[in-house]
Fold Phosphohistidine phosphatase SixA.
Amino acid sequence: MKTILIMRHGEAGPMQANDAARALTSRGHTQAVEMGQWLAQHYPPQAVLVSPYIRAQQTAQAVLQNSSVSFEQTCQDIVPSGNAAVAIDYLETLISMHDTLDTWLVVAHMPIVSYLVDQLVPGEMPIFATASVAVIQYDPETLKSDLVKLVNPTS
């Protein structure tokens, strides 16, 4: 079994013309650090896929500040308008190529984070608060998954 952690970025600044350039607010940074501490205690990530958008990159950086990962990649498929089916195919391919890595963190955005969960666990499409993490148990042999829980930051 593998663990897939689907995370929405922390709170970001207001909408602007260049959505990709939106940065985390101070609250968003605090949320990311908090969830990074929780992940380090419960599900330390070994591999990370992160959206190229600034707020997702900043979230991943804050989450991983006290962690060491073996694989990290920026992924163009997990932007807000991305195709979740394509992204999950890519993630499953990476998991099969790096079979010694058991815990994968994906840092992305609404609505794709909800669609990613639905691709892995059909019928489950949670609404993510900022910096929330969905914990999914994934069997690479059967390609079946179970949503274990959705964890929200307290800040």
